Inverse folding.
């Protein structure tokens, strides 16, 4: 029985590490897009403006992938623990919450 709880805790730690990594990557893309867009705004070079648009699309792509990962992990949590209920907070991410009995 102790092995079951250890594996459950290990899984939650791994899930949280995945979420943390995803959020760090999103912040990195956001910072890169911000710097690139600032460069494009201070210059009239068309390529830099195009690069700014590309970085913004990478940022949106990164955020979308991050949201999908978090949603997948949280749905798996729901499958593993039937006492959880999920709420969609409008951002496309499902948040598991303990059901009040």
């Amino acid at each position: 029985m102790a092995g079951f709880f250890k594996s459950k805790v290990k899984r939650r730690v791994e899930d949280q590490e995945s979420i943390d990594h995803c959020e760090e990557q999103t912040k990195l893309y956001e910072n890169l897009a911000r710097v690139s867009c600032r460069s494009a705004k201070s210059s009239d070079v068309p390529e830099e403006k195009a690069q700014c648009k590309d970085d913004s699309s990478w940022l949106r792509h990164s955020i979308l992938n991050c949201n999908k990962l978090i949603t997948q992990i949280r749905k798996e949590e729901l499958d593993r623990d039937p006492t959880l209920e999920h709420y969609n907070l409008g951002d496309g991410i499902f948040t598991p919450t303990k059901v009040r009995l």
Remarks:
- The first strand starts at residue 84 and ends at 88.
- The chain has one domain: 2-98.
